[in-house]
Write a structure and sequence with these properties.
heterodimer; A: about 120 residues; mainly alpha; 3-stranded antiparallel β-sheet; B: about 140 residues; alpha+beta; 7-stranded antiparallel β-sheet; 3 helices; about 40% strand; globular
Chain lengths: ~120, ~140
């Protein structure tokens, strides 16, 4: 993962932008067309599109007199891959945890007293 | 809904208390998570996990409800800070089910990170995050 992904994560952490990307994933569309399909004003759509364009998730293409937007799959792919790698790491850890706990003889488990209310700091 | 969170669930054939112990006891943490752990299940307690290859990752315990819920904020980078911009939060939920425990892990906070989450993690993983995978499928039909 070479590119800084944080701005992309940030751009994606928004329901409306997510919906816009879904729509654009189906087909290129103009801001007006998106506004007609989503419960958001055209102005808001334009703002969200600018955010998505800035991080390289969408680009604009002129078709006749219309400016249409298009999703760029490669960028999202990269983002998905990074998240997926972190998720895969959790899969591996949790399997190790499961294996550890299930192999553990009952008596070898140190009983852990649930912290009293309020929790007392350990020595 | 946070599309950028990571959620994983696993069922373990052991009572909740044992799973809880594995999540909160340094000697057990080192057997599945890192190579070294400084950890105390108390809200506000600072600690760290260490991986041989990557170094020390500071952490702070944010929520404790033994033996059913635990939230730990951990730095995204070795020796990193625990601000929103440089850490993520791991929420563990433990449910008793017939024959054992269902453990759910949700890691959140990727959207507020200020730099690349330095994944020393492999890229050769499988199984797309469901949400992203769905979107990816749409996008693969799209000329880039």
């Amino acid at each position: 993962v070479s590119t800084a992904l944080a701005p992309i994560f940030s751009a994606l952490a928004d329901e409306t932008r997510w919906s816009i990307l879904r729509e654009l994933g189906r087909a290129d569309a103009s801001a007006s067309a998106l506004a007609a399909r989503l419960p958001v004003t055209r102005q808001a759509i334009a703002k969200h599109l600018a955010v998505l364009a800035e991080v390289g998730l969408v680009e604009s293409v002129r078709v006749g007199r219309e400016l249409r937007y298009r999703a760029i799959g490669a960028k999202l792919d990269e983002t998905a891959r990074a998240l997926d790698a972190i998720g895969a790491e959790w899969d591996r850890r949790l399997l190790a945890l499961k294996d550890l706990v299930e192999r553990m003889p009952q008596e070898s488990v140190t009983p852990i007293a649930p912290p009293a209310q309020p929790a007392a700091p350990l020595p | 809904m946070d599309p950028l969170s990571i959620t994983r669930t696993i069922e373990i054939a052991a009572p909740r208390e044992r799973v809880w112990a594995a999540l909160t006891t340094p000697e057990l943490l080192t057997q599945w998570l890192g190579q070294e752990a400084v950890f105390e299940p108390t809200v506000g307690a600072h600690g760290s996990y260490r991986w041989t290859d990557w170094g020390y990752f500071p952490l702070v315990v944010e929520a404790v409800d033994a033996p059913s819920a635990l939230s730990v904020r951990w730095a995204a980078r070795p020796d990193g800070e625990l601000s929103d911009a440089s850490s993520t939060v791991v929420h563990y939920t433990l449910e008793s089910i017939p024959g054992g425990t269902r453990l759910t892990v949700v890691e959140t906070g990727f959207d507020s990170l200020d730099g690349d989450r330095q994944t020393a993690f492999d890229n050769n993983s499988q199984g797309w995050d469901e949400e992203l995978g769905e979107l990816k499928a749409f996008l693969e039909g799209t000329p880039a």
